[in-house]
Amino acid sequence: MVTALISVASCAGRAAPRSTAPHPALLNVSELWVDPGNIQNRDLFHGPGGAKLAPREAASYDLVAVDTSGFSPGYDVRDRDGTVWSVKTGVEAQSEVVASRVLWAIGYHQPATYIVTNWTLGKAPTNAGVARFRREQPTQTVVDEWSWYDNPFVATQPFKGLIAANVILNNWDWKTSNNKVYEVDDAGRASRLYMVRDLGASFGKTSFPAILRWTPFRLMAQGSRNDIDDFEQQHFIKARRGDDLEFDYRGVHTRLVDMVTVADVVWTCRLLDRVSDSQWDDVFRAAGYDMAARQRFITKLKAKIQQGLAAASDPSFQSD
Question: Most exposed: 9, 138, 225, 278, by fewest CB within 10 Å?
Fold first, then answer.
């Protein structure tokens, strides 16, 4: 039976990405991305929610529900003000906050996420551990999911730049269930925002065997998470051939990654290159990394950004 399933899946493959926009002229790209303006004015320590929406440290939270759907242990909890938070513990908590901050820094919509290091669950007398706390804005409601392969933005620069950014972050968990469509009610005017959430499978390396990409085993983990040794080991770009790039990517989403050209990488790397040194430190400090880990992650990220810019200026580029 397993052999038959592998055979069927191998023949089926994955469809090429396609745009669902009814008419390109009517497409509102700002639902996915907005020009961040002066990136150095962004508060990357507190992120899109700012200090005002941050959860309390050294506080007790009431359990609303246990989330058993993902890789990491999770809960829905309520604080004393009645705000409900989605909480993720485990290895993905820190990497998710960093990845979210980075995407928001360059213009992609993100929910308010924070790291809390000292909190208790219910009446538990001990600290519940380092956790990612995420809250929804009162004016925003999740109304749908969206697919990397079927969405209105497939042909746009921000969409292809988003793929490049995820390759830089080594985020490999590109499930449809991680992508949410929000309806925003702002002064009676409803609009939509497309967000990539649950970014914890970042900052490791992709390591999925190519022979299994089109089998049922493609639903398995495709790499590591929040592992500085792994993150440092993997390159970004291996070689350039004309306008095409060969990425050091070992996940299952090769059809998406193959869409990304030199121009797309330059677009993303130029945005990331505008993040200041102090902001990079804020990003990782906000996620609770110590100084040594912060420096290693930042050094590797900046090297990838410079590699992307170097590949753009050298038609015969090959990584060392």
Answer: 138
